[in-house]
Amino acid sequence: MKLLESHIVHQIDSPVRIQEYPVGHFKTIMTKSALKKMIKKKVVYINGTIATTATFVSTQDLIEVYEQDYIPKKVFKLEIPILFEDDFIAIINKPAGFPTSGNYFKTIENALPHNLKTSNAIDALPFPKPVHRLDNPTSGILIIAKTKTAQLNLHQQFERQKISKTYQAIVLGKTPEKGQITSIVAEKDALTYYETLQTVPSLQNQFLSHVKLLPKTGRTHQLRVHLASISHPIVGDQLYGKASENYKKGLFLCATSIACVHPITNKNCCFSIEPPNKYYSLLNREIKRFSKFNLT
Questions:
Q1: Coil, helix or strand at residue 56
Q2: Active site residues
Q3: For residues 87 and 30, which has the higher predicted lDDT (pLDDT)?
Q4: Range of the domain at 179
Q5: pTM of the complete model
C-alpha cells in the first residue's frame, strides 16, 4: 500500500478513540465519516498496527494513512460525451439508462477509463470517480474527480452547498409560471424552485409542461418526489408517475447545468447542455396531434 500521509499526535489531555480524533490534522481526510470509512477499510495505522474504531491514540502516537490497494477495473466500453477534461476533473454528459456506480458492470464509473485520459498528477486516483450521482433513468451533467485532492474538495463543496445544479423536465399538466416546493423527502427538509419554460396542449393528458428545476437540497429522488407531490409527475416516471400517461420513451429529466469552483485553479466554472432532442420532439408531436384534431 502507498503511504498517503503520517501524523504525530501532539499534546492531548487524555487518550481518545481514533474515530474521534480531529480530522483537521489530516490532509487527505476531510470529515469524521471519511475517517471512519478509512478505518473500516483497514488503511489507518497507529504505531504500525492497523487501527479499529476502538483504538485509542495518545500523545506522540504515530498515525499513518495509506491508500487502499485497488483491483484493476474491468472497463465498460460505453462512449460518453466529454464536456471538459484536465488532469484533475472531467465534466461528462451521462446517457440515460445506466447507473452512475454500484455493484454492476455496466455503470458510468466503469466506463470512465474508456473515455478519459490518465491523470499525470501526483495524487491521481487509480481510476476516475463520480463525485455525485444521477439516477439510472436521468441523463445530463456529471462531475468526475481524477485526483484525490479534487475528490475531497468537490465533496466539501457539495456538503457546503456551494455547487448549484439545474435540471429540465417535462411534466404532466399545466404548471404555474414559477414556484417552489418544500415537501419533506425521505423524512428530511427539501427545497426545489421551478420555472415553466413552455406549456403545450395534449390530447392524452390535457397539457404537458417543460420546466426548469433548481434543487437547493440534494435528497434522493428529490425532483421526482417533489413534482409528483404537486400533481405534476415527470413524464416517463414509472416510480412516482401515472401509469395512465403511457409514454414509453424513458424519464424526461436531465441535469442541464452545473456551477462549481475548480478544485485546483479556484476558478468559477459553469457547464451547460441542451436536454435531449426527445424533449422537443415530444412537445412538437403533442402540438401537432392537438392541432390535427382541432380541439380547444
A1: strand
A2: 135
A3: 87
A4: 164-255+278-292
A5: 0.81
